[in-house]
Amino acid sequence: MSDPDALAEISGKRAHVALGGALLTGYFGRTTFSLLSDRLVVVSTAILQESRIEIAVDSITACRLCARGSWLLLGMGLLLLPVFGIGLLFLLWYLLSRIRFLVVSSEGNTCALRFKGEDSSYQEFATMLVRHGVATRSCRAESVPGTFSRVPAIGKPVVRALGQNPETMVTCSGCSTNYRLPPDSKGQLFRCQCCRMVVEVE
User: Fold this and answer.
1) Closest by CA position to 127, among listed 63, 56, 39, 61
2) Would you kindly state where each structural domain of the chain is located, as residue ranges?
3) Are 44 and 13 in contact (CB under 8 A)?
4) Element at 72 (helix H, strand E)
5) Dihedral sign, CA of 120, 124, 129, 134?
6) In 130-161, which positions are buried (b, 16+ CB within 10 angstroms) versus exposed (e)?
7) What is the pLDDT of residues 70-103, one digit of tens each?
8) CA-wise closest residue to 88 among 101, 104, 74, 100
9) Which residues is 180 bridged to in the sheet?
10) CB 3.0-4.6 Å disulfide test: which of 16, 17, 88, 168 passes with 181?
11) Hey, how many other C-beta atoms are within 10 angstroms of the C-beta on 185?
12) Are the beta carbons of 100 and 116 closer than 8 angstroms?
């Protein structure tokens, strides 16, 4: 079911992550990834079961697209190899076929789904998920008093210390976030940690 509050949503066939990182396909049911403002909701449905996992976006460590052969074909090929070489057909099928997965890894959890067709929408979802997680972590770090953070800059980097009293105030034109910068940062460029827009210090 589609979540009305989702920023982005993608669906595919069920997939399982086994020990050692092996990706196993599920032949029944579907999995849906729904990106909300602060978490990723993973809903998997099958004939007799349904599961729901909620992952904080700032805990997501990786999101990747990969293609692998079917472990079932590999096993059948090895088992039937002595039977008149029938296993060679399964091994050839294993080498030629590719099953594509979208895998999301977080702190202590890994979720995956299997998809077919064009992967552009899945790549866009993965990119949006990673960027949203980075922006959430940056904004959360900004809200912690007494911490120091380095703002990526074009040219000379600008170091901003929240515990000091800088003289230059800058407001991001993209998300209206206010920054306090050292007085010697005028004329330089820095990147907003929330929306990633490049802002010139005036």
Assistant:
1) 63
2) 8-140, 146-200
3) no
4) helix 71-79
5) positive
6) bebbbbbbbeeebeeeeeeeebebeeeebebe
7) 777 888 888 888 877 788 888 888 788 888 899 9
8) 74
9) 169
10) 168
11) 22
12) yes
C-beta separation of 102 from 121 below 8 A:
no
For the four alpha carbons of 33, 64, 104 and 115, in that order, the dihedral sign comes to: positive
pLDDT, tens digit (0-9, with 9 covering 90-100), for 19-53: 766 777 777 889 999 999 889 999 999 888 899 99
Cα angle: 33, vertex 35, 39; to 5 degrees: 110
Tokens representing 176 are 């209206």
Q: What CATH number was assigned to the domain covering residues 8-140?
A: 2.30.29.30
The CA distance from 53 to 109, in Å, is 10
Compute the distance between CA of residue 30 and CA of residue 47 in angstroms, rounded to an integer.
10
Query: What pLDDT does residue 118 have?
Result: 83
pTM, two decimals, is 0.59
Q: Decide: 20 and 14 in contact? Cβ < 8 Å.
A: no
Q: What is the C-alpha to C-alpha distance for residues 4 and 25, in angstroms, rounded to an integer?
A: 28
Residue 74's identity, in one-letter code, is L
Which pair of structure tokens corresponds to residue 41?
């909701």
